[in-house]
Specification:
Length: 586
């Protein structure tokens, strides 16, 4: 379009020159004959022809010049309009520079992109508009070589607006053929960069989710088997302690077995969290309660005794809203964040733990998008050693630890935090500066539901039975054994069977007051199918569902059908006792 316009102008200019040349040629030609013509006409007409002729020619010349001028004005206006249209639809800045990179020409887009008027940039160095970190003489030589070879060069730089704001640009440098200098096209790539960053974030999130998923599946399998193994370690000490005299020397070692069992169970639970099968997110909880309760635990007191120089500041919002969550996992999350913070300050320092209500309407740090709404924020901030940029993406990976093996844990702490936040549909934000400290902010969506009444530990007499008939259905002999021993201790009559099919046959021949159904059994019916078959025979059969995993859809279905109570293995006397007692009393 521009080249047609230029051609058109050239033709116009040539025509003007030709017209003027013809006028002069005619004029000088007529000068030769003017005397003869004059003599001839004057002889016959006697009119003042010389004046008339001269005036006519003069008027004709003036007219022609005026027309030419008008024509030229019109052409210039059209050219200007065209340039304005081009610059209005072209957001890029076009700059012509001489060989010393002085700006010689510039299009009006410079106003929109940089905030400068054209005259302000003319004769300035290009550094006035942007700076390139690699802008060394060597780099410039390189550009010239590429220009000679390929005709253009593509580069990136940081541009500076007249209000000081920085933004990224792409520069396409083209050779000005036959002239000293170059033409530069400066393109604002802020949006493009933002999109690239978002894509990168999404990819990282996806990779992390996939990695956690894979490790979770593995961990889940191991955890399920370990759970069964642990049942004995957790269950029998309780039973033995009940039967032991107060002053027995065996009491201490037994308690220590129980303690180890509990520690192992907590690691298994961490693994289950990673497997995303262990988290039961359905209780209405208040994070303030979880935090205060954790701060009172012997575990926390122990942590403090190891870090006497660490100062704690607690700022909990008094009007903190409730969330729907799993108290056990939230408590673990709080514990992991606080212990990591304390461990990041080997000498002295300060940990700030705070909560607040926050309305989120735009994505936080690492997230591309978030669900807009009310959140509860838990912040744990330390003044410790900080986490380097390279390490930061790794801290949530299972088994990633920088701590001396044996002194601290297994590198599962932050994975549990990550898994818990995922299960609660929350978000994590981490900011860390080496040698200055780290701040974790966890966002959990709020609920307007009220807290349930507090559960208090029950005395064993509260869940003693009255000789009711209980049928334990489990494919694992060790599980049947432990459940049956516990229930006998609690004064129930217990029968055990090893499959769903056997359970159905049993119930058909003999009624039971309650069935304890294992949900996952390797062969044959699972807990749900067993219960479905049993209620065909005895429609009001009472039952509880147990599993090493957390609630699944099949568990929910069994609950809907009437097996209302679900308990998670490993069993403890209180857990199984209370569940059976409650169910029987309904
Ligand atoms: N507040 C923090 N300050 C500095 N580094 C941290 C902080 N929190 C976590 N990290 C880093 O992240 C790593 C992983 O933390 P994570 O809690 O998963 O494992 P761990 O603390 O090493 O072991 P575990 O929690 O199982 O006892 C830590 O080893 C540490 O390097
Ligand atoms: Mg840790």
């Amino acid at each position: 379009m521009i080249s047609t316009h230029v051609k058109h102008r050239e033709i116009t200019e040539m025509s003007i020159v030709v017209v003027i040349a013809i006028v002069f040629a005619l004029f000088s030609l007529s000068a030769h004959f003017i005397d003869d013509i004059y003599q001839f006409l004057h002889q016959y007409t006697r009119l003042p022809l010389t004046e008339v002729l001269i005036n006519t020619v003069f008027l004709w010349i003036v007219g022609t010049l005026w027309m030419t001028y008008r024509y030229w004005r019109e052409a210039v206006k059209k050219q200007k309009d065209l340039e304005n249209i081009i610059s209005s639809i072209n957001p890029d800045v076009l700059v012509v520079v001489d060989c010393d990179r002085n700006i010689k020409k510039c299009n009006p887009s410079v106003q929109r992109m940089f905030g400068y008027e054209i005259h302000e940039v003319i004769n300035q160095k290009t550094d006035f508009l942007y700076f390139d970190r690699r802008s060394t003489p060597f780099h410039k030589d390189e550009i010239y070589k590429i220009l000679e070879r390929e005709g253009f060069h593509l580069g990136l730089a940081t541009a500076k607006k007249n209000n000081g704001d920085l933004f990224p640009i792409e520069i396409i440098t083209g050779n000005l053929q036959g002239q000293d200098g170059a033409v530069l096209l400066l393109r604002d790539i802020t949006e493009r960069k933002k999109e690239e960053e978002e894509r990168h974030k999404l990819e990282t999130q996806l990779q992390r989710a996939q990695k956690m998923e894979a490790i979770g599946t593995l961990a889940g399998g191991v955890a399920h088997d370990l759970n069964n193994v642990l049942s004995a370690m957790l269950g029998y000490p309780d039973l033995l302690l009940l039967k032991m005299p107060e002053d027995s020397p065996l009491k201490k070692p037994l308690l220590s077995i129980k303690d180890s069992g509990e520690k192992a169970a907590s690691i298994v639970n961490d693994l289950l969290t990673l497997a995303r099968r262990g988290v039961n997110v359905k209780e209405v909880v208040n994070l303030n309660t979880i935090i205060t309760q954790y701060l009172e635990t012997p575990e926390h007191q122990k942590l403090r005794s190891f870090h006497l120089e660490v100062e704690f500041e607690i700022n909990l919002a008094s009007d903190l809203l409730n969330i729907i969550g799993s108290p056990v996992h939230l408590a673990k999350t709080v514990m992991n964040l606080i212990s990591n913070a304390a461990e990041a300050m080997p000498a002295r320092g300060k940990i700030v733990i705070s909560t607040e209500n926050r309305y989120l309407d735009k994505a936080i740090n690492d997230y591309v998008s978030i669900n807009e709404g009310d959140y509860v924020v838990l912040m744990v901030k330390d003044s410790g050693m900080g986490i380097s940029k390279e390490d930061l993406p790794k801290i949530f990976e299972p088994f990633y630890t920088k701590k001396v093996m044996g002194r601290s844990g297994t590198g599962l702490g932050m994975s549990v935090v990550w898994g818990t936040v995922q299960d609660h549909q929350g978000y994590i934000d981490v900011e860390s500066i080496i040698e200055r400290g780290t701040m974790f902010k966890l966002y959990f969506p709020i609920t307007r539901k009220e807290l349930a009444a507090q559960e208090v530990p029950q005395a064993i007499e509260k869940y003693f039975g009255n000789g009711e008939q209980i049928l334990v259905v489990d494919d694992l002999a060790s599980q049947r054994e432990i459940a049956s021993t516990m229930l006998k201790t609690l004064n129930y009559n217990v029968e055990t069977v090893s499959s769903g099919e056997e359970a159905v046959n049993y119930v058909q021949s003999k009624p039971v007051d309650l069935a304890v159904l294992d949900m996952v059994m390797d062969t044959g019916f699972d807990g749900l199918e067993t219960y479905q078959k049993i209620i065909e025979i005895r429609p009001h059969q009472k039952a509880i569902i147990t599993s090493g995993f957390s609630e699944t859809d099949r568990v929910l279905e069994a609950q809907r059908l009437g097996a209302r109570t679900f308990i998670q293995k490993p069993y403890t006397l209180e857990k199984i006792g209370m569940a059976i007692k409650n169910e029987l009393s309904k």
